[in-house]
Amino acid sequence: MSIFRYEINKILEQEKERIFLWFPVIFAVGILFYFSLRFEPSIWWSLAVIETLIVLAYLWRQRTRALMVLSWIVVMVLGFINIQVRAYHINHIPLLQHEKTLYVKGYVDASGYNYRGKPYLILDQMQDFDDHSIQGKYRITLLNGKNKIAVGDCVETVVNVRPLMSPSISYGYQFNRQQYFQGLKATGYTDVSVHPINCQDIGVQQGSFFPFIERLRNRIVQRVYQILPKNTAGIAAAIIAGERGRINSEQTQAYRDAGLAHFLAISGLHMGMIAGLTFLLVRWIAAWFPSLALKYNTKKIAAVLAIIMSFIYLLISGWQISAQRAFIMTFMVLVGILCNRQAISMRMAAWAALIMLIIEPQILISAGFQMSFAAVIMLIAFYEKYAKFFQAKTEKHFIIRCFYAVGIYLLGIVVADFIASMSTLPFVIYHFNRISVYTSLANLLAGPIIGLWIMPCVLVVLISMPFGLENYPLQFLGKGIDLLNEITDTIAHMDHASLQILSMPDWGLFLIVCGGLWLAIWQTKWRHWGWLLILIGYLSILTVEKPDVMTDELAKTVAVKDNSNQMVILPNRGNYFTKQMWYEKLAQVSATKKNKQKIQEIYQGQKTDEQFLPLVCDEDKCVYQKNIVIHKQGGIEVNDIDYSDKGALMIYDVKKHPKIFIIKNIFGKRYWNNIQ
After folding, report:
1. Where are the alpha helices (DSSP H) in 129-267?
2. pTM for this prediction
3. What is the total count of domains within the chain?
4. For the purposes of burial, counting CB atoms within 10 Å of the CB of 148, is it exposed (0-12), middle (13-18) or buried (19 or more)?
5. Positive or negative CA dihedral for 348, 463, 213, 219?
6. Domain end marker among 153, 181, 206
7. pLDDT, tens digit (0-9, with 9 covering 90-100), for 484-494
8. CB 430, CB 513: distance < 8 Å
9. Are 171 and 233 in a shared domain?
10. Model confidence over 414-466: pLDDT tens digits?
11. Last residue of some domain: 90, 109, 125?
12. Same domain, 406 and 495
């Protein structure tokens, strides 16, 4: 035991410079522990834990190792309390519990477009018809498709509002949780006109800075759509202003299948290029004035202007999570230049992660945060070990240097794409159930177009817009986007361009993340133990099983398993979005036309086919596996127990020992009760 302890201490001594990098990880574990609970913990329990830690710190004040372990526990508890306090702060305004129709007037806090391209408004500081205050924010979709209302305006309309959408699958994406932490208390729609009113008449306090930024974004998007064709303008608006709502679904799917979906979300690629291009442009201009270059440090001047331009781009892009992370890291790189320190390092990534988790702890469970940092961490880890290989040769011959530079550039694209793809693969599987097969080919072809054509044009467009000179730069940008669209469409339609796959369980993803961090953070030989955790995490996919029965919260959308282990969605009227989400999470496509006809006949009670589907139906209900009763008007019974009002269900192993997971909500979180 003493030998083992000696070896561990020896390794930790060698790795002491890297120990700090685990602080954001432990902080994140505390946040993750909060989300893993099946109940909302009392704030008093957290206070009791803090007091206990203070007492232990006093009692162990002379024990160095005990204090070290205690410090890690403190960091984890701080992460837990950070997200708990945020949820507690949000929860003081109750969620809407029942669907209803309201006359509302209020302040437009934000606007945008949903996944179907319909405009929406987020209303705050609302009042009803009798001037009674309505607490919280409502997100209202405009079904008539017309939106001439600007952020910062006050409006009145009649809306149909309903509670936040409950999850219908235990491991699916939970929009209600995201909306909850955005401060939304209800969602809804209106199919009538939205009329502007005077904010002073309803006593609303208007903001100034952020409404100005939102109006500026809207003007930029409108200008883009005025100059460019619709399909081109959708991509341009996404990379300039972060507005992706008007990209059609076919085009979005093509970018996903080609492995270029990351280009549509403003991230480190965009922010880094904007900052880098600004930096190079300023230094190039300064080089034309020798007296200025000799008198001042133009490198630091360029860094300051690059920070300013990056911040402007962050504001215009809509303050997205990926853009925030990219700006923080870009800012730290440029500050490193100002302080004459190494710009790119794992410590920089650690600080960026910690800052973001302190400000918005709920982003830990978002796909954008996870994939962004997975790619960045692995790229930095690779850079730390193999950076010398990519450094320029001191060859004197100009032509040889040029060929070498081009070769290193192309190799860098392939290597960086491969590392980023492999590091984000588990998150792509877990969240999206889809693998892009030709992502390396797509990025190799698209990389030079994005880096040498599209992003320089974006910078020129942003600089020229205040002067009204954006017409020609936008048209030139559109040509580059058209070429990128052609590459994307071609690769997306190649045979087997994408593969659907079942999600790994939560614990499998957790092991992969732990293994990846172990591999990236440590530098001595014991880092390779991370490969074992990664392997076990991927093998966890083999433990995933499909449920026998799935229902949404109202039990109107129902799926059952046929005898070929495929889930069949019954042809009753249900939520189309829920059905599509089920198909994605179950990694299967819709039934064939022949099987759809057969399912329709079984559902209508015209026939039975026990060899295909153990389901017997009459006019009012269906019976699955002889003991699951599915009512056609909504509702489900299992062994004579009615589960209709208990939330969405997932039922496993119906024949032997039914395991029923009831998916509910607390504080916008996901949890489920396991009933044996």
Report:
1. 175-181, 209-227, 230-241, 249-258
2. 0.86
3. 5
4. exposed
5. negative
6. 206
7. 999 999 999 99
8. no
9. no
10. 777 788 888 988 998 998 888 888 888 888 888 889 888 998 999 999 999 98
11. 90
12. yes
